[in-house]
């Protein structure tokens, strides 16, 4: 997993940007194997719910940023992706898409009936097929951050974490984070953050939560609104995101990448220090943050579980 637990889980907990510079050579994209968990869930979403995942603000032309992302992917992950300016090929998926939307299956598929990816792409409007192929080739979801307007004018987000992409497209960074609890630091830094991430440097940040369900796709329309009704804290799940920014300084934009992972909480707590750190972070959350994260109703049993887990784990 790419999530940095020790850097991300600290007490007291604060809602803050938490950006750090990417180390030289650190990849920002994660190629998917055919039939992998991320790919299966993305296929389901892009086949059945694509209007909630593939979104563009009226009047915005995503082609320059999308083509720049395709070129970046070819440079960083050449064994998984090729791009010549007009044609993209996902090598692991044996599927190619031209900029006019033509789909080609270049070899027999390696999972399912063999044509799942091509069939999914052909079911989409032609203008979305390149973005969808990128989404299926890599674990990350994508959004464009526009430096001039401070907005998110384009999204390809199939695996949201309890938020609706269709409610965020075209909105200013500060508006996007307005519902976040204890958001004063985020809102105060909004304009500076947009300027920073659309500059020439590469940045990353980490987000985490304890959740009651294991699916990567957690759109609020398809998750139980009565959280924790069927899941005791002993069977809780550890949901993390590694977020990075691919700089596109020539466009005054950046591509925001989101890599979601979900694993059993007990599996993520490998040492006493980690269990204690998570316990202390949750114990320090305000009521507003606990409610925003869906943890208010399970705060006490979750803290008791984490304390017991810490006592039972080795010190290192």
Number of domains: 1
Count of distinct strands:
11
Regarding quaternary structure, what we see is single chain
User: What is the count of DSSP helices, taking H or I runs of 4+ residues?
Assistant: 12
Strand-pairing-aware structural class: alpha+beta
User: What fraction of residues sit in β-strands?
Assistant: 15-25%
Helix-strand pattern: HEHEHEEEEHHEEHHHEEEHHHH
Q: Order of strands across the widest beta sheet?
A: 1-9-10-11-7-8-2
Largest sheet: 7 strands, antiparallel
Q: What Rg, in angstroms, do the CA atoms define?
A: 20 Å
Shape: globular
Give the integer mean of the pLDDT values: 93
Distance between the termini: 19 Å
The helical percent reads 25-40%
